[in-house]
Write a structure and sequence with these properties.
Number of strands: 12
Helix content: 40-55%
CATH class of the largest domain: Alpha Beta
Number of helices: 16
Radius of gyration: 25 Å
Number of domains: 2
Length: about 475
């Protein structure tokens, strides 16, 4: 950590050593003519080691504080759960930690971790399972064993399973109280219709998940040959490897895990208007369609496009919708770059009911504008400068550095992805941005989700196409 702080301080010192052109009249330098040396930042490396069981481990030592952090990344996710049991992965990830492990009762585990000032957490998202550990160095040995039990030997206490199920059902019951949650849920369902990423839990699916199903789901995916570790903090390399080998053991002869093949989301660009009736003064608006994955040749151009269109306080959407028109406080757009599957492009805002149609029309027009003419030189420069110069802030701690390295392997990125990232951004041209916009933005085919009170709208939603009203009387339509 000390080395990282020193590097950051050096950068700030460099920022102060600019070389201005001759001073303007009165002896004052003109800030518009100042030049600065190029920012240089080398990403710290992490060591990759294979444990005796064959598990890859990324190590980055930092003795600045007497703390150790570990994150296990497991190849699993809700995309592997049956649609009829939507919620199974999330429940499994939650109860792995809350339900006790290795014969240690949940209450005793809670008390012991609290006494040691340690933390062990678990969870499963759409395409990754994680178990994490944070511990004082002096308590690392015991915390590591609890961590390994949660990761590989959870007990799934029946009582805690029922508590987790009730919490999820209550969350579903409350979901339709929040217009933003409704809109976010429905735009995702619409974009990924017919794909596991578009399936959401329902009362029936959550109630169908049993303890046995959780045990089976865990046993299927949580194996030492299906995970990667990221380790950082205050440790000695040799001692750490001995501890890890002791808890994870040697390689076992067992049938290789074959993950089910999940199809790609269908690239269907068909417009649709979805309306959720809520008696609120502010309309929630979401619009978008399928996006790109990390393997797209337009990846870097899309990153620049993102910033210019809706990813900054000076973006086109913000300047027109918020600053010039005063229609919304919050407005923006974002390409969520998919790592295993194509991600999404979603634009969003909230506006008063009486300006609903006007805001929708303006957003679509602004987005369409990026497909019709190149961005300006200033827009291109500002976007590239911001992305390149803010890059180093993604590596502010040893834990973030080593986790980034492990994630690259987990998702199959090129080994030199981070090292080449800034240069690839720097090479993006106005023509690249325009081409990416033409290929990946189709406002005429947006899924449009609007939540609000239609009687107050300035114009009917039918202006944008046939409207399908959502049933918000149940937890999930």
């Amino acid at each position: 950590m000390r080395r990282l702080i020193t590097s950051l301080l050096s950068l700030f010192i460099l920022l102060g050593t600019f070389s201005p052109l001759p001073a303007a009249e009165g002896g004052k330098a003109d800030p518009r003519n100042m030049t600065f040396p190029e920012l240089r930042y080398e990403i710290p490396r992490a060591e990759r080691v294979l444990l005796e069981c064959g598990m890859p481990v990324y190590l980055l030592r930092d003795p600045e504080l007497p703390i150790v952090n570990i994150t296990a990344m497991v190849r699993t996710g809700s995309v592997y759960e049956p649609a009829a049991m939507a919620g199974l992965a999330s429940l499994t990830g939650s109860v792995m930690r809350s339900g006790g492990a290795g014969g240690l009762a949940p209450e005793r585990m809670d008390d012991e971790l609290e006494f040691m000032a340690s933390s062990v957490e678990s969870g499963i998202s759409s395409d990754m399972g994680t178990v994490s550990l944070t511990s004082l160095t002096k308590n690392f040995g015991r915390t590591l064993r609890i961590f390994a039990d949660v990761l590989l030997r959870p007990d799934f206490s029946e009582k805690r399973v029922e508590i987790a199920r009730r919490h999820m059902i209550e969350g579903l019951r409350r979901q339709n109280d929040d217009p933003k949650e409704i809109a976010d849920r429905e735009i995702t369902r619409a974009i990924y219709a017919g794909h596991p990423l578009g399936v959401v839990p329902t009362f029936d699916s959550v109630k169908s998940v049993t303890r046995q199903e959780m045990v089976a789901f865990h046993r299927r995916f949580f194996r030492v040959d299906n995970m990667i570790l990221a380790v950082s903090g205050d440790f000695e390399r040799g001692a750490m490897l001995r501890e890890l080998n002791a808890v994870f053991g040697k390689a076992e002869t067992k049938t290789a895990l074959e993950l089910p093949e999940i199809p790609k989301p269908p690239a269907q660009f068909v417009s649709e208007v979805l309306y959720g009736r809520k008696e609120v003064n502010q309309t929630v608006i979401r619009m978008g369609h399928i996006g790109i994955s990390k393997d797209s040749p337009d990846l870097y151009a899309v990153r620049v496009l993102d910033y210019i269109l809706g990813g900054s306080f000076t973006s086109r959407l913000t300047m027109e919708i918020r600053t010039n028109q005063g229609l919304a406080y919050n407005v923006g757009s974002h390409f969520d770059i998919g790592r295993r599957f194509a991600g999404t492009f979603i634009a969003e805002t909230e506006t008063k009911a009486e300006s609903t149609a006007k805001a929708i029309g303006l957003m679509k027009a602004i987005i369409a504008g990026t497909t019709q003419a190149p961005v300006s030189d200033q827009e291109l420069k500002s976007a590239k400068d911001y992305i390149i110069n803010s890059f180093m802030f993604g590596f502010t701690s040893p834990a973030s550095i080593v986790t980034q390295r492990a994630r690259l392997e987990y998702y199959g990125y090129p080994a030199d992805y981070l090292e080449k990232y800034r240069a690839n951004i720097a090479r993006v041209t106005k023509e690249d941005v325009l081409s990416a916009a033409v290929r990946h933005l189709r406002p005429e085919a947006f899924k449009l989700v609007v939540v609000g009170e239609t009687a107050k709208f300035d114009k009917p939603l039918t202006l944008f196409g046939a409207v399908r009203e959502l049933d918000l009387t149940s937890a999930v339509p």
